[in-house]
Amino acid sequence: MKSLKCACLNNKLHLINIESTLLRALPGFEIVGLASVTIKEAATRVKSALAALRDFTLPAMKIVINLSPSDVKKDGSHFDLAIALLVLLQKEHFDSDYFVFGELGLDGKLRSSAELFSVLLFLSTHVKYAKILLPKDIALKAAMIPNFEVYAVDNLAQARDFFLNDEFRDSCKVDAVHPIFNNVIEIAGRKFVPNLNYELDFIDIKGQERAKRASMIAAAGMHNILFEGSPGCGKSMSAKRLPYIMPPQSLDEILLASAYESLNSNSSDFSAIRAFRSPHHTSTRSSIFGGGSGMAKIGEVALANGGVLFFDEFPHFGKQILESLREPLEDYKINISRVNSKVSYDTKFLFVAAMNPCPCGNLFSKNSSCICSDKEISKYQNTISSPILDRIDIYCTMGDIGQDDAPSLSSKQMSDMVLNAFKHQIERGQSELNGKLSDADISKYCILENEAKEVLNRAITSYNLSQRGINKTLKVGRTIADLRDSQIISKSDIMESLSYRMKR
């Protein structure tokens, strides 16, 4: 029996071991192991490609191909090359420690399939290192994945020589480095890719110093934030600039973000800028959270993983959508169950919401009069339930921009301060940023001085804080302390953190 490795993507990645054997029986070609019609058809493509080799004759025996594990449904034409090689090399000794992908033409030429790059991206998130044989038309792109050793061939004959000829194997290696991986920084032994692009800059926002401070705290600790203010005061501008000042991504985060994006589009690329997703308030529940009638498709909350999920006009989203936010905001995962599939996606995003203070938007305005009644204002604000508001770490009101307001901090300056706070979190040994710390980690990393404890204890009663509210106050205080290079959370840190709690 011979074997090679492959993989398939069926909502989530499955590592597949392809086994082959020859049986003394009537000549035939059988593929077993819950193979799809596409894979079953590989028998015809493989036999035709093998027939195109002048120095090879199909054995007069029954060829059996097994795709293990047998209880996982497999699909994809990229299994062709591995199946053909197992028949071709049945009597040879070769290194089976390779992942082999490629669709065969009837003449033995190799090409990539539509979903192959998605499979490779998800494979990169499951294995730390892999040797991979691929068609040349996708090899250069695949070689940019940091933890892959990529080899490329044009046809089945070259693939056979790859396993039998060491000198030819070395000539097939493809080396490429994506530009963003040329600028890697190391913090506490871990590698991160910083963003050097400030296309959207906070310098464009005049005034709004409190909103900028709140944005910097939210970015440094991955804290959920709600902006409330009159139309045109800069709520959306602030939200759209957050990804540019957020902490650098690890290599694993970049790979996972690209893998998720590949499920949503025909092509994806590596980016040092974190994801930014902004669904419209008329979007359907399945488009935001994922799903569909058949297979479970990825939604906006998963595509925002590691980045920003922005809900503009927050109260205009449907009640069902708002209440469904509880799971991804609390558990950092979204589970989608359908008849044919069950899948789970990570949802560790920075949630940003923006809303007007009233239906007409002028309640906070000094220049325009509000025309809403108290009942209308109350109804509008009560659209968002207390459990959802309790999951917001930072609440920031924004007033009108004055004629004397001027630009202040740029995104580059804010990014440098965020990076400094990020380094403190990594050097402490945290596996998560402050905003995503578990209850056990809060007691470990959120150390308060005595005066800070007294302030927090008084606030628990006066602010009527829930346990979740207490934890969020501590986590925001931890980030504020990191921004001023302190390992201990002071009284002023807690007081600033409490100032960002919503009081309704």
From TrEMBL:
Organism placement in taxonomy: Bacteria, Pseudomonadati, Campylobacterota, Epsilonproteobacteria, Campylobacterales
Domain Mg chelatase-related protein C-terminal: 410-501
InterPro entries associated with the record: CHLI-like, Mg_chelat-rel, Mg_chelat-rel_C, Mg_chelatse_chII-like_cat_dom, P-loop_NTPase, Ribosomal_Su5_D2-typ_SF, Ribsml_uS5_D2-typ_fold_subgr
PANTHER family per record: COMPETENCE PROTEIN COMM, MAGNESIUM-CHELATASE SUBUNIT CHLI
UniProt-listed SUPFAM superfamilies: P-loop containing nucleoside triphosphate hydrolases, Ribosomal protein S5 domain 2-like
Protein name per UniProt: YifB family Mg chelatase-like AAA ATPase
Pfam families hit by this protein: ChlI, Mg_chelatase, Mg_chelatase_C
Residue ranges of every copy of the Magnesium chelatase ChlI-like catalytic domain listed in the record: 201-400
Top-level taxon of the source organism: Bacteria
